[in-house]
Amino acid sequence: MGESGQTLMDRLAQQPKWPEMSFATAFRLTIAVAVLARIAAVAVLIGTDASGVYAYEHGEIARNLLEGRGFSVRLLGTWGLTSQQAPVLPFLLAGCYAVAGAGTSAAHQLFFAIQAVEGGILAAGAIALAARYFGRSGWAILAGLGVAVYPPLVYSATHIQVVATATALLVWVFVALYDLREFRKPRDAIFAGVLMGLLALTDPILALAGVGATIAWVAIDRPKSRSEAISLARGWALLVIVSFGVLLPWSIRNWQVHGRPVFVKSTFGYAFWQGNNRLSSGTDKVVRESVEAALAKSSGGLSGLHDRLWKARHEAGCVDDIALSVEAKKTLGELPEAERSAELMRRARADLAAEPGRYAKLCLRRLRYYLWFDDTNPKTATAFYRIPHGGLTIGAVAGLVTMGTVMRRKMAFMIIAFALVAAFHALTITAPRFHLPWEPAMIVWSVAGMRACLAGWASERSDLLHQNEIASRLRPAATISTAGR
What we know:
This protein is mainly alpha-helical. The protein contains 23 helices and two strands. A two-stranded antiparallel ribbon has the order 1-2.
């Protein structure tokens, strides 16, 4: 190999150099990219008139709050005070309605602006989390950039749903849990407890992150000494107390409304029925041939794709539409909300008992939907979703395998929490939006794998160069020896 070729190989063997800028500057730029990406998505997909944006049940609850009817909604044909939704998002939307008018374009644009800011908070949290493992380095910035521009996360900011808020909270919960495990300071426990309570009031299933941390700290990432174990146990107890303190006002309200304890939401039985009744495919969506026709209609650009996805979603409809008649909804409406959910749970269990083995098949199908692609959801049928989601899933698995034992032990609390939530959704009901909050963690896992692989390659290359250097020093001696003979 010529001198120029050898020089090129030596350059390739070196550790990649990140752009010359300070970590703080890169940190701020990444946050800006995240915010601007979400603002651009809203501008392109929604446009200037957001008055027609579908606000789901959150919009109805927000209107009722403003009009003095309390936290209420019409569910299965019956209006009443409800715990069908967790409170954080409806109250946030009600605040936007109070400022700019209920259901107006300005109110929805304000809400989308808040979600864009949440995207910046999410990117900051991803960098903070990655920096706990990789230091204040380009690897942490890379993880933040991945979160900032990852298409499904950016797209989620164009919907009035809990995903954007829940994802940002979950990432910062992970940061707080890491700090609590490492430093065991009361302020870390309090911060983690406040975030955990807010997370449960946004999406109660994600509170399993705390359970995952508990299991990891007991079974895998155990304290190294008795004093460390005692301080961690105290921190954990403080976290639990603070979390319950955050949840207490809503829990008291639920008891007053339903006459029984209700953990944040009252619809577990209803959701289980949606995923497991005799006509269900494992999710709340209906599989129809007309959905493919709606997706196939030509309409140019990203805005056209967005319109097709919405039409396909409404074409698919909800399993309630085919599994509950008008008379059945009327009968259920005569029951209190909590009892209505319990009744639907009984019906789902009866349907499953009538077909032995079907529940196991539904669970396996849902696990595949959760981890890979949900065949019942029109949004997952597009390359816009499949390419980034499939690539991230493969990258995260590779990262978990290659990151090394020490790194895997430090990340155990996230890995176990993810497994618990995946199991929950496999056993009950699933949808792509339930997976989105975990994708920032998966990006961190992917970056950990890339870092480990590059470090291994660089180490092997360094060893090879060292061996070549030794060999080159021995060659002249060998030549002299031959000449002497």
